[in-house]
Amino acid sequence: MAQGSRQIQSQAQQQIQTLSPQQILVVKLLELPAVELEDRVHAELLENPALEEGKEESTSDETTPAETSEGETEGDTDYDSLSDYLTEDDIPDYKLQENNRSKGEQAEENPFSDATSFYEILREQLGECNLTEHQRELAEYLIGSLDDDGLLRKSLESIGDELAIYAGITATEEELEEALRIVQDFDPPGLGARSLQECLLIQIRRKKQSHCTDPLLETEEEIISECYEEFTRKHWEKIIKKLGLDEEHFYKALEEITKLNPRPGASLGEAIGRNLQQIVPDFIVDTYDDGTINISLNNRNLPELRMSRDFTEMVEEHTKNKA
């Protein structure tokens, strides 16, 4: 009698973890170098109307639990009305930022170049100006104080203090203002600006010098000088109403504004074919005499993000009136 074969059926339990779209996005963001992450965050601020720059406001000290119409108690959690579509995995990006750098502390940077930097190009333009020795010293110091975007992030008061301490040069704020105007006349337009708003205005006014009768440039200047806050938040309807503009004329001006360069210093290096690279560390390691080591993330230029109040109010209104 042949021995029959036996079939054995077994059951095994296997645990598989799937990632939500939000978790996948977080992983992708963690893989980005510091510079690419900065660009990604700034691009998202421009493209996503639900985000705005600023620290999240806490409502825990301002609100108290209240009874709802059904007798339930509402908590004081931020954006509680968004819970209809947020899960525990949907962690907002701005909650993931860890501020582990003291205010005013700057990250270490290691710039290197195999060719002429844009600072030297500006000094060449300075050499063509007819200035006094004092004006030349002030303008040269201002050029050296520009960041890689060609913007001046320091106040003229602090620069005056630096000149007195490190260079032994005494300069009034009016003299520094005059020297800064000289630098702001250099090419490309926008260099030496103290803010993005001033950078855009310098470029618009430079264009007006050669197209002084163009009404579109007048509108561009009005938008940036009088409605800059609304412009950064993309509140187009508010700008149109505030300035009393024709809608078609406004969007033509808006199209021209978006062609302006917010980083004139960086574009100068690209335009002249120079190779200026800069190493920006993703994290910084500090060692101390007692042998301890401190590691900190480089969040130098990452702004704090929060949900736009206009967006959250719109969502809250939608959830209250689902019908």
TrEMBL record:
GO terms for molecular function: DNA binding; DNA-binding transcription activator activity; sigma factor activity. One of its GO terms (biological process) is DNA-templated transcription initiation. This is RNA polymerase sigma-54 factor. Residues 112-310 form the RNA polymerase sigma factor 54 core-binding domain. Residues 69-91 have a biased composition (Acidic residues). Residues 45-113 are annotated as: Disordered. Pfam families: Sigma54_AID, Sigma54_CBD.
